[in-house]
Write a structure and sequence with these properties.
It is a single chain. With 240 residues, the protein is mainly α. It has one domain. Helix content is 79%, strand content 0%. The chain has helices spanning 3-18, 29-36, 41-47, 50-66, 79-118, 123-151, 157-174, 177-184, 189-212, 215-237. Helix 5 runs parallel beside helix 8 (177-184). The termini are far apart.
């Protein structure tokens, strides 16, 4: 992958990191008190950007070095196919998540409400960080690396790709658990399963799109998932 393309991808992902400034990210009280002894509130918001920026840089470098040795592409198909496939797959992911919500809400409604109230991402953050930056981190960086590593061990390409899809998606899901434990302290098995299964299967859908189409289509599928969910929440708030 050319250096120019890698730099462009990094700065596109950086827009997602900067979108974190659109919310007040909740911190554990003891951590917040310790930071306030050394920094002002607005400085803490910028400090929070350091880790995701470093991870974004690592993912961009890793993906750029590895992608030519895998079946993945950043840009493979035209925009018409990207828009159609991304929208359809995003809608499919939403339907699956709604089914999960309906099943789990009977057992963990209060926990789901607490999690929703704890952090409320803006639409800007959902689109830029969720749809773009997370795809660079998890698909372009991590999934591409896994595929290359397992290609050295297993000679069947499809097996390598599916291992990479599942592992990167599972790690993506597990990465959502610390918030649950921070908010709920002792989350129930139902909310843990909801977080892990929902995010794993959603990540697998985006990983499959990355494999069969390209990274930009996976990004659009992730973005449209958030847009569909936001529209549904907006309509439900008006009783529709």
């Amino acid at each position: 992958m050319k250096l120019r393309e890698s730099v462009i991808l990094f700065f596109i992902g950086l827009l997602g990191v900067l979108s974190l400034l659109s919310i007040d990210i909740p911190l554990p009280q003891e951590v917040k008190e310790e930071l306030l002894q050394q920094f002002q509130s607005n400085q803490i918001k910028y400090l929070i950007l350091v880790n995701p920026t470093i991870l974004l840089g690592l993912a961009t470098v890793i993906g750029s070095l590895c992608i030519s040795h895998t079946p993945f592409k950043v840009w493979k198909i035209d925009w018409k196919v990207t828009i159609f496939q991304g929208t359809i797959i995003g809608a499919g992911v939403v339907l699956f998540l709604l089914v999960c919500d309906a099943m789990i809400s009977h057992f963990a409604w209060d926990e789901m409400q607490k999690l929703s109230a704890f952090i409320q991402p803006t639409l800007l953050m959902k689109v830029l960080y969720g749809g773009i930056t997370e795809e660079i981190l998890m698909r372009f960086g991590l999934m591409t690396l896994f595929c290359l590593v397992f290609s050295k061990l297993i000679k069947k390409e499809k097996v390598n790709v599916w291992i990479a899809i599942v592992l990167s998606s599972l790690l993506f899901a597990i990465g959502h658990l610390p918030i649950a434990f921070a908010v709920l302290e002792t989350p129930s098995i139902f909310i843990i399963l909801y977080i892990v299964i929902g995010n794993t299967l959603g990540g697998m859908a985006f990983g499959y799109v990355y494999w069969k189409y390209d990274l930009k289509t996976a990004m659009l599928a992730h973005i449209t998932t958030h847009l569909h969910l936001t529209l549904i929440l907006l309509l439900s708030s008006y009783g529709i």
